[in-house]
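Re: the multi-chain job from yesterday

Posting the exact lines I submitted so nobody has to dig through the queue logs.
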Amino acid sequence: MADISISNLIKTYPGGTERATDDVSLHIADGSFTVLLGPSGCGKTTLLRMLAGLELPDSGSISIGGRDVTYLPPNKRNISMVFQSYAVFPHRSVRYNIGFGLQMAKVAKEQIDKKVQWAADLLQLTPYLDRLPAQLSGGQRQRVAVARAIVVDADVLLMDEPLSNLDALLRLNFRSELKKIVQDLGTTTVYVTHDQSEALSLGDQVAVMRKGRIAQLGDPLDVYDAPSDRFVGGFIGSPPMNFVDAAVTPDGELVVGDQRLMAPSLLQSFGNHSIVLGVRAENVSVAKERASGHIAATVLVVEPMGSTILLTVDVEGQTLKVQAPPSFRTAPHQTIWLGFSPNTMRFYDRETSMALEAN
Ligand SMILES: Nc1ncnc2c1ncn2[C@@H]1O[C@H](COP(=O)(O)OP(=O)(O)OP(=O)(O)O)[C@@H](O)[C@H]1O
Ligand SMILES: [Mg+2]
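And the result, structure tokens for all chains:
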């Protein structure tokens, strides 16, 4: 069993004024794939490096498979890591680079050759085994770094933005390959990215980080559907979640500007409050004619995306992005009607930005 328990990890770098990780606690199940997601500087790499033993926390603890490893050196943790900069040895062959960890572990040469061949086949690197990294494309070099990490029989695989040096198409292809490889290996994996689509597609669980803290932890769909605060909703999803200033009347109706939306029954308990409505673009329906419970919007921008049309619209001075079917014909300045369904609406506190739970 190689589950990971992270408890109250606090880390400030020497000379740093802010905590790079600020009281992070997280449980990672054996064999699962956990993604650390967040904007640049939020502490993802720092957390991963503490798991690897490359940084020590100021306080808190890490255990892997029930064993406290907080202060153990990297080579005593049975982990394998792919670094943010792929860190291959430039003057050594691809074959040497892939087998490096096994050589360090004093594995027999025959066994090394076998495993290197296995990983090279898996990552389509066989034709390049005798080349130097400089003679490879960025994507191939990144594959070498992944191959090197997976040949080692580690309890835990740590990957820091392993797809960051790939162009968009390669990234997309390699992403699903990587998912398959890691699934087949069944190794507990912690994966760092600032790309929200990567996090949603790869993770069994996603930890969204902000300023050294975990803002939300959950399965990808939950994090996408029900962001725990406005930061998470604004960070995840393309386009990000819409946030609309709204008010709840004493009789539980939701009002945007002068327009009334149908009242979701859960809102009754908020009574007479200014709130923020959060709704995803694909959860707003569009109509050309006025319909009951719909509100009027003025079209600002029309962007055909192939499978949908993305509309930027104005509702009472607030801008929203909504999705229309490809057959929907509209143009800037036209009035359209937006419908909202209660079960896809989320509500946030205007002051704290935290999700509001109905009681
Ligand atoms: N070696 C270091 N010395 C001092 N401060 C550091 C060091 N490494 C990181 N930091 C600081 O710690 C904070 C967290 O950095 P970290 O590298 O963990 O972020 P990240 O989430 O991985 O960002 P990115 O997406 O840009 O890689 C940042 O404010 C960063 O400036
Ligand atoms: Mg980083």
